[in-house]
Every structure is written in structure tokens, then in C-alpha cells.
């Protein structure tokens, strides 16, 4: 994998992380409860979903 490909991959993942985190933070409380999500954990949930950590 070239340096340019690695940079592009990281940028794509960062954008996906930001979108996921935003979606989790902005979802209605009722939906979060139905999905058993704690909205303040949006950062951790998004990181796990995108980066696998």
C-alpha cells in the first residue's frame, strides 16, 4: 500500500467516524433507548464501528 493510499484510507475512515458519531449523537432518545445505546458513548461506539477498537 502506497503512502497516498494509506492517507486516503485514513481520511475515509475519519469521515466515516465523524458521520457515525454525529448520527449517534443526533438520533432521537427513543431510538437510542430501543437500540440500547447510551448517547454519551457515541465516540466509543463510532470508533468501534469504524476502526474496530
Structure summary:
75% of the residues lie in helices and 0% in strands.
Task: Tell me about this structure.
It contains three helices and no strands. With 53 residues, it is mainly α. Helix 1 packs antiparallel against helix 3 (42-51).
Q: Could you give a short account of the major beta sheet? A: none
Radius of gyration: 13 Å
Strand composition percent: under 5%
In sequence order, what are the helices and strands, one letter per element?
A: HHH
List keywords for this structure.
53 residues; mainly alpha; 0% strand
List the helices and strands and how they pair.
Layout: H1 3-26, H2 29-34, H3 42-51
Helix pairs in contact: 1-3
Amino acid at each position: 500500500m502506497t503512502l497516498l493510499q494509506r492517507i486516503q484510507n485514513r481520511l475515509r475512515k475519519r469521515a466515516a467516524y465523524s458521520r457515525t458519531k454525529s448520527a449517534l449523537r443526533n438520533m432521537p432518545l427513543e431510538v437510542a433507548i430501543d437500540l440500547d445505546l447510551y448517547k454519551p458513548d457515541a465516540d466509543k461506539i463510532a470508533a468501534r464501528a469504524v476502526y474496530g477498537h
